[in-house]
Amino acid sequence: MFGVQNSPHVPLGMSNQRLSETDPKDIDARIREYFSPEIRWSVAFQDFQGKTFGILAVEEAVVKPIVCKKNRADILREGAIYYRYRGETKEIEYPELAQILEKEREKERLLWIKHIEKISMVGPRNVHVLDTYNGEISIGDRKVLLDKSLLDKLSFIKEGHFTEKEDEGLPTLKLVGTIEGLIDVDNAAIDPNAMYPLTTKQLQDELGVNSYQIQAIISFLDLKNKPKRHTEIKQGNKSNPIHKYSRTVIDVIQKLMEQKGRNAFIDECVEKYKGNTLMKRKRKKH
Predict the structure, then answer these.
(1) Of 94-103, 205-214, 227-236, where does mean pLDDT reach its minimum?
(2) Residue ranges per domain, the chain?
(3) pTM
(4) Interior CA angle at 149 toward 143 and 150, to 5°?
(5) Which of 22, 161, 262, 285 has the fewest CB atoms in 10 Å of its CB?
């Protein structure tokens, strides 16, 4: 926060326009000069009681820890990791560093699981790999190489961070035209058992409900009419298909249980299901 006295915290307002007149590119270049990986930040200004204050906000890092790359007088030390403790910022101590590294390992584990699930859905033959370390795009048994000079300048557009304004954003590789080898997931030959791994019984067991309750939940959410959540698989000459569901169904139902309360959500589904069943019986009688 710019414009607030350090000790005691007195709101004085900014005494000059240096922050507003400084080009954001210069600030970003200086941050990238001293720290890696990327630090995402933004600057804003707020008027309060006739005074102007500057706010420099730093987002939580995507990849941790952030490491200092070079020395700067007695302020920064090469190889140091700085951590915000209560009332001060200083080099990190072991307990906090261990906690950060453990969280990063868990993120890596979950990312591997996500990649493996994606590969199982589209099939390994349909997966192409962009290796940003070696500058290779693997397409089947063929490779496309990116020049090292281009690779060093390559950045990826992240959701919510795209801009085409002049002098804003990082340099981004723009590919224009038709690129062979991309997958149309909606029309790709995907193993339905991989995309929809759960039977009704498995869905019931994972959610910890009885057979009547799972039928009520399926009806309440109209899952059988949602192709992204459900499919029918025919086996041999059997007339009745097997109903299969994607794993995302578990996430959707568990989220609703958290929002509404587990018992309240199940009761709502059961009551609705009973009402629909009675209406169907009345129609048959007439």
Answers:
(1) 227-236
(2) 18-89, 92-122, 128-187, 192-285
(3) 0.45
(4) 60
(5) 285
